[in-house]
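Justification of resources, computational component.

The compute hours requested in this renewal are based largely on the per-chain cost of generating structure records like the one below. Each record pairs the submitted sequence with a full structure-token output. That output is archived, and it is also reused by downstream analysis tasks.
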Amino acid sequence: FSASAQTEQGIEFYKRGEYKNSIETLQQALKLDKNDTQALYYLGSAYFKINKIKEAGKTFERAVKINPNDSQLQSGLAYFYVFRNKLVEAQQAAQKAIELNRQNTE
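The structure output for this chain reads:
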């Protein structure tokens, strides 16, 4: 399987609520393409769904380092910061997401 095929399968597992299968599949995709931010986004989201908040945060931080101009990734990072009660960081990430989203719609 290619990295993109693994990512698509992982996303399908996520959408069906099969979060552990999603995590395993997305981790395999990331072994093939460590910079796949779509895989990282869904991996972080799946970690949130099974209450692995620390792993979710690390995943979103990694994704934002790869692509800081992705509003979806910034939103995921903001969500993590809220969970960790890091409200200043959450506000900064959320504001960045809003700005990026605004730029994408202009």
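The mean pLDDT is 92. The longest helix spans residues 87-105.
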